[in-house]
């Protein structure tokens, strides 16, 4: 977040400041007031402002535009990328409210079941009609928009409809307040998808069960190749008539011609259809909708609907969801230097409670990766595992704030493994599909981290075996070659250095598990594999560098370039510093601490030419400091690496600088994709003064806390108080750390030291402690 | 079957005669020897020669050609119609063996999971490759082909592979005997469909679970608009490698690019894909496949596979299925005048045991019309209800030969009603879909017939309510207008006379139910509705005639024409005689018995101009006698109507003539679509000497038996013996009938008289008994 952005958003900032400053001590127990779901809804944050419960299956959120991935001339439309969560704050129109949205991802899918209330002559096309008239979208303004955890409100100006949304775990709850009209409509648009909006549908199916209940499903072939979502949609008031229009050109061979299928015919099916439901409304009349999801069946969705919201009391559900949010947000109580910081903090905490999502019906049934229906026995099933992002800080954070959920998430990953025809743990999975996005097999990190921190009761032996199985699927993304050559040869598989580095780290995680289980043979094997990073280090230039199958390094090599240089979404300057399992040795390889510290200094201060960041969605100036890229994950541990060079004070100042400049309480408050909470988890950890540089170990690197104080309600019943003495915007340096009164030496802290509770005191200073 | 056809098929006939004549008395207990599944596989019979159990879910049968519904120039390809069951006897090539086939229908679908063994260089396109080379089809000859109940064998000459097929209820069992080859393949073609072969797929999904087990599913949008079929495919020998090719142009948004998805990658999905599995084979080596189906899930299919065929003993399954067939076929033991008649008879009996099919997993789970998974509680669920055809004689036959199954079929129809969003009983339903084919709501007839005959333990009140609900879905095919005007106005709905006549009959069936239940108000209401046929009778011309909403008859009217004259698949001459619920009154309307008998004489003897049978798939010269159309259902009761005119002897000679000329023991032995067994059921009844002209009443019209003797093993434990004394090809007239020695007066017999068992003796004569 740059100064210019701050200025631009002062009105909004003042608005959020106002309510936070008004809070009295007792009101302060409502932490949702410090959450602004609008943060990150501009540019690259890719967050959504809509209503959801913590880790809820429903994310009911406004969609502000259609995105075509390819324009009419076949060219790629870069705008697509902005709409990963369906909403961009810059927009002034809303096309409806969809029930599924990713939070912060860098690729997308979902957008299921777009609902839009309108009045007047029925228009069924969202943007413009065939005759070039206005589509069903509405204009709106942010003045008449409100977002808080579990609640979203907006005035749909084109129709003078007030729209309010809340949600339970599996049910979206809509409240639309109409003017008097004999032409009020609720549109259910099944054509709309996020990304490739009109090309992803496989099939849709709707039944009008009675005059106020609809059921059905949609199948899509998007990022998830074989995805099915079922629904049940209840109206608070019977519709007077209804119908649908088909937007595909599929010819049926059935005998539907004997009906007017389009109007008041209670069975609709096809690839691309939009349905509508007509009402008469009185001035100020509310029409409410409960919209339940299921991965299993429409019967499952109906079960979820009935179980979760058996009433029509919108305020009751809103209040219950708010309470759920306060339960999660209250786990870390902070005081901050500024009201803005508190908003940034609690919004980050909010963003770490959105993914993965619950993915099972109220009775525990869920659709598995094999597309069969399974029952979660002894756990809650979760989906949306953006693991290349979230293994870094989000799952480690869960080991502190959400150990029970993280345990369930690991069990969900093990179920995924069991259902996987590859016998692999998830890579990037959502909605009973593996989308294979990004690299590595970082589920092993999540498992190892929980194992060494003694979190959960998942079957450790099973988890270890699943990890070993995953690490030996030779046809997966160069693993066979990695094992054969000791590295992924660039001439056989691109992004070969990134893959080698990450596989080596993941293998170290497996070795950590093996050690825990006393399996010395496996430990030895995977410790050996964890050294493979050495094989892609070119000592002659001091950089990790792509190597070919013949053992030679790739000739043309630009360590500043992010394309074709053996890395994915990063360059050698950043991504080449990825050996979290053996940082000392990496630094030694790279000519020692001094040289390494200089490299980091240069990284943060150098000027990168434009050509290096062109055509790169994940690396933009907004998220960069010099050549350091905070806007994307490969660098997230980098500011903490000074700790290993003897220059811990540089870590302290860098992380404070990053927190101040890369995060903020405005719509542009995320400098890159939040990536299912990883970006926010970095902020939570760093704000508290430590960061899990090496998940799978019990150590956290110490940084510089941003908070004045923090109290963590730990799952073991203990409390951990963190105090930053002499905290100020200038006092970014830590002169000493005490744990329960005892001086802490070194630059790290262990999980045990956190979990035992008590007092951690950082003494802050404006002067670096160079010892 | 015309003389010329008999001559043409003498070699085949001799073949079938040979084995039937060789039978000794003990061997005769094997009734399957009298069944030739090839009957009806030529021209319009639309039967399939492959392997199935009685009412089995799997119909594993050769497919002899691809059919494109529309040619490249957009014109309709009439050849499509010939391939409703995938096989035409005239063909000399086979493209594989599919697991689902309708028997005898006049429209089509299915053809799921085409399996083809080949050798040599892999070819994945069935007809010709992109480079115009030969496709994977094989030539074959009927000399090397064998078909019997539950077993099919053919030599695939192009590859010197012997193919053998058998089946259990839910599992197809393949045995392929190869020559020595290091390029042996089993192709699983998921593109192939019957009708619209390459345009019906919605999605397909395959998992290679291990080196000898595949699972997956296919979704199609054909005649059944939203159809899902799941499978599990086990190989007796591990394949050495495998792969697939995609034939659609769908782009995924996932990240599959990191694999070579085409080869040895165990997860395949897409719209149109063909998979292959490679083997080395020794000379004479058998590779067997067990291929299980499910409507529920691939897990369900695997369960079916394991439960039904836990071994690899092909002969055992073949023998078990043969025994199942003998159990059904032995229910009617006949002696006939000629060996050919016996083959025709038992093949007809076989054809009445193919539809509807079992539609549930071994554990009772099945997919319902609402696409949710249901459990059949207290019944076996069936699908494929071609009710416009089968209510006439097939379901009445079931009330004698398959009362328990008919009871389950009615319960299946009631479940369909409960799951129907329209709250309608099935019209023409298959695979959890209503395809709305043809007219009327004849499930009411099936229910009424079972009710008056006291068959089954289905809930009569529920069945009545479901019938009433069905008869009052006003938006369905003119029902609202029918109720309003007392007829379906032709200017509002085509085929209006057919609909009026059939609704009136169906309403009479509901009245019959109401009477049974003592519901006098409803009885009165539906008796009233059952008279609506009167409203479309034009006394001025003596024909049923389309009436307009204004009460006038349609001006241009040609009672010989089948197009646009108010009838569907029939003309006024035939179809206008459809008042089975009150034949006396219909005859009275039509100027009395003499005039009516003359009408029938003319019908059978007149010469119909070619123009009247052009562009009519269901009405061809093969199935016609004069203007009488035996090849399609609307006329099936007509030959029996002489009984009501005092000229019963004409019924006797006509039905014998029809049995002799419209049926036979050759591939052309069906003169029109067998229509899921209706055509064959007509033959069974008529052969035994009686026919259910009015299902829903207990009466059967007496005709002229073709058999010499018949013994029916009734479900109530009794035996019914039918003897035709002095039976001969010439003695087609019945001079008297005795039941258990007592002279039977009149021209009908009751269900009770049949069910009490004992002896019915027809005394045959060459001279008509005109009294």
From TrEMBL, chains A, B:
It comes from Gelidibacter salicanalis. It holds the Pfam family Glyco_hydro_92. It comes from the Bacteria. Its cofactor is Ca(2+). One of its GO terms (cellular component) is cytosol. This is Glycoside hydrolase family 92 protein. The keyword Transferase does not apply. Keywords: Calcium, Hydrolase. Monomer. One of its GO terms (molecular function) is carbohydrate binding. Residues 301-765 form the Glycosyl hydrolase family domain.
């Amino acid at each position: 977040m740059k100064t210019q952005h701050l200025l631009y958003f002062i009105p909004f900032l003042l608005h959020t400041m106002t309510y936070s400053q008004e809070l009295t001590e007792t009101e302060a127990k409502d932490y949702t007031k410090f959450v602004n779901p609008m943060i990150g809804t501009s540019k690259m944050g890719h967050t959504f402002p809509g209503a959801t419960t913590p880790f809820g299956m429903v994310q009911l959120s406004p969609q502000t535009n259609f995105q075509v991935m390819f324009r009419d001339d076949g060219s790629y439309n870069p705008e697509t990328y902005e709409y990963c969560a369906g909403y961009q704050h810059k927009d002034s129109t809303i096309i409806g409210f969809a029930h599924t949205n990713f939070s912060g991802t860098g690729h997308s899918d979902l957008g299921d079941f777009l609902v839009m209330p309108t009045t007047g002559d029925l228009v069924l096309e969202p943007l413009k009609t065939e005759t070039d008239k206005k589509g069903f979208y509405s204009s709106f303004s942010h003045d008449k928009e409100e977002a808080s955890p579990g609640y979203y409100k907006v005035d749909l100006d084109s129709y003078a409809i007030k729209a309010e949304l809340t949600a339970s775990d599996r049910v979206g709850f809509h409240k639309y307040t109409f003017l008097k009209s004999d032409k009020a409509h609720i549109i259910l648009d099944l054509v709309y998808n996020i990304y490739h909006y009109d090309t992803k549908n496989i099939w849709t199916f709707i039944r009008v069960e009675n005059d106020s209940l609809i059921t059905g499903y949609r199948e899509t072939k998007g990022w998830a190749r074989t995805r099915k979502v079922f629904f049940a949609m209840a109206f608070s008031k019977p519709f007077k008539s209804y119908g649908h229009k088909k937007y595909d050109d599929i010819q049926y061979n059935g005998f539907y011609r004997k009906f007017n299928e389009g109007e008041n015919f209670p069975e609709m099916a096809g690839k691309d259809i939009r349905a509508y439901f007509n009402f008469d409304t009185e001035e100020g009349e509310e029409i409410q909708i409960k919209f339940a999801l299921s991965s299993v069946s429409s019967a499952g969705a109906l079960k979820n609907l009935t179980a979760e919201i058996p009433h029509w009391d919108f305020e009751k559900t809103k209040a219950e969801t708010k309470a759920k949010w306060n339960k999660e947000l209250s786990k870390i109580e902070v005081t901050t230097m500024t009201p803005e910081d508190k908003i940034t903090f609690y919004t980050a905490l909010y963003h770490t409670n959105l993914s993965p999502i619950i993915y099972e019906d109220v009775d525990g049934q869920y659709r598995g990766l094999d597309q069969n229906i399974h029952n979660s026995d002894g756990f809650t099933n979760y989906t949306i595992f953006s693991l290349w992002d979230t293994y870094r800080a989000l799952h480690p954070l869960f080991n502190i704030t959400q150990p029970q959920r993280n345990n369930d998430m690991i069990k969900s990953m093990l179920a995924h493994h069991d259902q996987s025809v590859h016998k692999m743990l998830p890579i990037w999975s959502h909605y009973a599909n593996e989308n294979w996005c990004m690299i590595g097999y970082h589920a092993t990190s999540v498992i190892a981290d929980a194992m060494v921190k003694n979190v959960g009761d998942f079957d450790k032996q099973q988890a270890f075996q699943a990890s070993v199985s995953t690490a030996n699927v030779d046809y997966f993304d160069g693993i066979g070659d990695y094992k054969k050559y000791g590295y992924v040869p660039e001439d056989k598989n691109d992004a070969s250095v990134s893959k080698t580095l990450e596989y080596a780290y993941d293998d170290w995680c497996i070795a950590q598990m093996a050690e825990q289980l006393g399996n010395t043979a496996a430990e030895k094997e995977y410790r050996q594999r964890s050294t493979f990073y050495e094989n892609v280090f070119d000592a002659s230039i001091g950089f990790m560098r792509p190597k070919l199958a013949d053992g030679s390094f790739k000739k043309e090599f630009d360590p500043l370039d992010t394309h074709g240089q053996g890395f994915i979404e990063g360059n050698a300057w950043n991504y080449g510093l990825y050996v979290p399992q053996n940082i000392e040795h990496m630094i030694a390889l790279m000519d020692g601490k001094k040289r390494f510290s200089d490299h980091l200094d240069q990284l943060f201060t150098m000027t990168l030419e434009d050509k290096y960041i062109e055509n790169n969605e994940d690396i933009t100036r907004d998220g960069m400091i010099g050549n350091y890229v905070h806007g994307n994950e490969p660098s997230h541990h980098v500011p903490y690496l000074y700790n290993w060079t003897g220059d811990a004070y540089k870590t302290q100042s860098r992380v404070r600088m990053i927190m101040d400049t890369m995060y903020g309480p405005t719509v542009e408050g995320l400098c890159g994709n939040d990536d299912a909470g990883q970006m926010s988890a970095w902020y939570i950890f760093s704000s508290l003064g430590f960061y899990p540089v090496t998940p799978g170990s019990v150590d956290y690197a110490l940084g510089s806390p941003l908070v004045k104080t923090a109290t963590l309600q730990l799952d073991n019943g203990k409390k951990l108080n963190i105090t930053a003495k002499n905290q100020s915007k200038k006092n970014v340096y830590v002169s000493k750390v005490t744990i329960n009164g005892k001086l802490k030496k070194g630059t790290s802290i262990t999980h045990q030291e956190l979990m035992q509770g008590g007092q951690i005191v950082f003494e802050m200073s404006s002067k670096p402690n160079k010892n």
